[in-house]
Amino acid sequence: MTTQTTVAVTPREPALLGQTVVVIGGSAGIGLATARAATAEGASVVLTGRDHRRLEEAAKEVGAAGHAAFDATDSDRLREFFRTLAEPVDHVLVSAGGPFYAPLADMDTAAAARHVAEKVQLSLEVAKLASTTVRPGGTVLFIGGTGGRRPAVGISVVALLSVGMQALTKDLALELAPVRVNLIAPGFVDTPLSASLLGDGLDVRRAQLRETLPIKRVVGPEDVAALAVHLMVNTALTGATFDVDGGQQII
After folding, report:
1. Which residues, in sequence order, are CB contacts of 190 under 8 Å at separation 6+?
2. What CATH number did the domain enclosing 213 receive?
């Protein structure tokens, strides 16, 4: 006689059900992946991006509650966007912008200074706006990186911002409390931005990472998005930097 055992599986309630997530830079890459992940967990998402057409497509894909096309480094437009949000939000992710690579000998120092200023201003502006927009216990999440932690030619600006954002995150976590502030620091992530930066060297870089990373695969935007959702859900986490690099820092 054969005995069959039936195991009852209780459906899990979506972790972000009824919550609103704003993604600054949500039309592609990490931002779009986070919008997908948040939507899958029951959140209502609002997206911003510079490219109107690409943003429209992203908003349609995830069924966004709203979207707005503008350059996030334009402080007036950013403030207007926050003013027009229909209701308080629970989480804000800032993934807009890209890195600045240049060896000192070839560097346009004025352009480098503008890049640093825009990154810092965007972070501070979002934090200030979030202080009156995000519900207590919600999160402000910044996307940084691990690329500047080891000295190398051509990454001085990246290194400056990498270290600076970690310190800023800790201070903002105190100033915005009980709103939580955290920094996600990815290593190489296989996104359209990475493809544009590496060009013909993309496949070589992918192969190198598959060979050398402890996880034996390339980190994708979905990996970063999964961490972002966890940081939204876990209300014990604030003022910290979380690496997601497949072990790149330890090899």
Report:
1. 206, 218, 219, 220, 221
2. 3.40.50.720
